């Protein structure tokens, strides 16, 4: 399936407003009490198994927290990066990252791009990810995660609906070999009703 673009005006993802929106969505007390992130935390840790991970498009650090202390984040939104730092996480803006000690070829055992690809046309997503692949070691794991139908429709900043076939195409363009492809945490049919059902593809770098 090719990507579908929204025709409505899009909210920006690079301002304070977007950071506040993410905090409002992820921060309610009931979510913390019920630990709704438990299955997602388990899945990310299972996939990377304590590898050092570069989290591209880290947002306000949800997955960085899951990966701690093995994650380094990068994001174009300076407000979101500052929020990550306020939480004690290691994160940099896209402008900063290239000058850090972490920007070394093969530095990381893995790369995570969770809820990044759907925010732009697929060619742009491929270009961005290709720019960070040099920091992943040979044999390193690359994990791509996108929302399913309900989750995609819930955010006006989403641009390109990307399913498992779409993520496999991204991997192919990047020269990655897919190792695992699944719907998570519920079966595929739940994606039309459950906002937080995700497409998850894990691939390896040659």
Automatic annotation (TrEMBL):
UniProt keywords, alphabetically: Methyltransferase, Transferase
Gene3D superfamilies per the UniProt record, alphabetical: Vaccinia Virus protein VP39
UniProt xrefs under InterPro entries: SAM-dependent_MTases_sf
Domain of life per record: Bacteria
Molecular functions (GO terms): methyltransferase activity
UniProt protein name: Class I SAM-dependent methyltransferase
Biological process annotations from GO: methylation
């Amino acid at each position: 399936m090719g990507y579908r673009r929204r025709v409505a005006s899009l909210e920006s993802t690079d301002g304070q407003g977007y950071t506040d929106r993410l905090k409002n969505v992820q921060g309610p007390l009931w979510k913390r009490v019920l630990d709704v992130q438990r299955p997602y935390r388990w899945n990310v840790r299972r996939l990377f198994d304590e590898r050092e991970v570069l989290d591209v498009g880290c947002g306000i650090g949800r997955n960085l927290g899951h990966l701690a202390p093995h994650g380094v984040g990068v994001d174009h939104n300076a407000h979101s990066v500052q929020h990550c730092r306020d939480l004690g996480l290691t994160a940099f803006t896209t402008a900063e990252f290239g000058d850090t000690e972490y920007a070394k070829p093969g530095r990381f055992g893995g790369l995570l791009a969770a809820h990044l690809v759907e925010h732009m046309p697929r060619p742009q997503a491929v270009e961005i990810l290709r720019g960070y692949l040099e920091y992943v070691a040979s044999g390193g794991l690359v994990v791509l995660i996108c929302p399913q139908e309900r989750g995609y429709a819930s955010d006006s900043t989403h641009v390109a609906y990307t399913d498992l076939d779409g993520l496999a195409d991204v991997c192919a363009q990047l020269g990655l070999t897919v190792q695992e492809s699944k719907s998570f945490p519920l079966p595929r049919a739940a994606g039309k009703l459950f906002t937080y059902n995700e497409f998850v593809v894990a691939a390896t770098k040659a």
